[in-house]
Amino acid sequence: MEKEFESSRIVMHISRGCLVVPLHKELLDKELRQVQDNILDRIIETKVKGLVIDVSGINIMDTVMAQNISDTLKMASLLGATAVLTGLKAGVVVSLLDLDFEFQGIRISTTQEEGILELEQLISSKIEQDYWEDER
Amino acid sequence: MVANKRSINISEEIDIILAVKEAMEMAKKAGFNETRQHMIGTAVSELARNIKVYATKGQISIRILKRNKNSGIEIIAEDNGPGIKNLGEAMKENFSTTESLGLGLPSVKRLMDEFTIESKVGEGTKIITRKWA
Q1: How far is A103 from chain B (nearest CA, A)?
Q2: At the topology level of CATH, where does A4-135 sit?
Q3: Domain chopping of chain A, boundaries
Q4: What's the pLDDT tens digit per position in A92-135?
Q5: Which of B42, B108, B109, B110 to mutate to test the interface with A (most CBs of A within 10 A)?
Q6: How far is B82 from chain A (nearest CA, A)?
Q7: Residue among A59, A90, A99 whose CB faces B107 most closely
Q8: In chain B, which ranges are E strands?
Q9: Regarding the domain delimited by B5-132, which CATH topology (the fold level of the hierarchy) does it fall under?
């Protein structure tokens, strides 16, 4: 853990070049939006190349929250951070299906650790690719 | 101790969170497993949100049900809001009024086992929904 940031009672940190955001309590819509703003600010400020949003502490994800998380992950990608969603619980997955909500185009990993590992590999292969493209 | 019956007034966003919390505790008491507790909580979240967005205020009532050896939970969402003009349309998949996400009523129906709705334009909406453990 290199650095910690706090926003709306959510503590995010940078681990192995990735911004890790564990969501673990019920948040009001405006708090969710604030967390979203803070995530995007941190990405620009720290120039991290990866974002992990971990929802293993979330039991209830309604359509508004799911949409917010999905948007945040997509915005992060547009800012150049490869994003992954981790820690979806069985109850959340079953409910999302009934809500007809799909995390379209979102990379998903089971645990936070696995998410970081996946991002590390993706980012390093991307850097290598960029390097070879520059050489040519 | 968790009560067998509870009513929560919905007018602020925080009330949605309170209603969900209450529903989850009662679902647990009624014997629902964790996954199904979460489904009930999600349904309550959608119903309470509808009240807040479309009617500004209303009420969520939660009750533990007993039927023979079976137990369940009943959620009633009531408001005196504008009502729903076209119920048939609102229950159709992907139907939306002002918000892109729509009312989410088909979702609530899928999350729960039983679902009935009454709505009168200018008078309000009442949704009764149940799920059995």
Answers
A1: 14
A2: Transcription Regulator spoIIAA (3.30.750)
A3: 4-135
A4: 999 999 998 999 999 999 999 999 999 999 988 877 777 777 66
A5: B42
A6: 22
A7: A99
A8: 5-10, 58-67, 70-79, 114-120, 124-132
A9: Heat Shock Protein 90 (3.30.565)
Does the predicted interface ipTM exceed a cut of 0.85? no
Would you state the structure tokens that stand for residue B35, as one six-digit string?
């996954």
CA–CA distance, A50 with A62 (Å, rounded to integer): 25
Partner A contacted by B87 (CB < 8 A):
no
Q: What are phi and psi of A40, to 5 degrees?
A: -65, -40
Domain boundaries, chain B: 5-132
3-class secondary structure, B113: coil
Cα B102 to Cα B110: distance, rounded to the nearest angstrom: 15
Assess A94–B contact: CB distance below 8 Å, yes or no: yes
**In the numeric block, which tokens belong to residue A14?**
């940078």
Interchain proximity B14–A28, CB inside 8 Å: yes
Amino acid at site A29: D
Q: Which residues of A touch B93 (CB under 8 A)?
A: 100
- Note whether B110 contacts A62, CB cutoff 8 Å: no
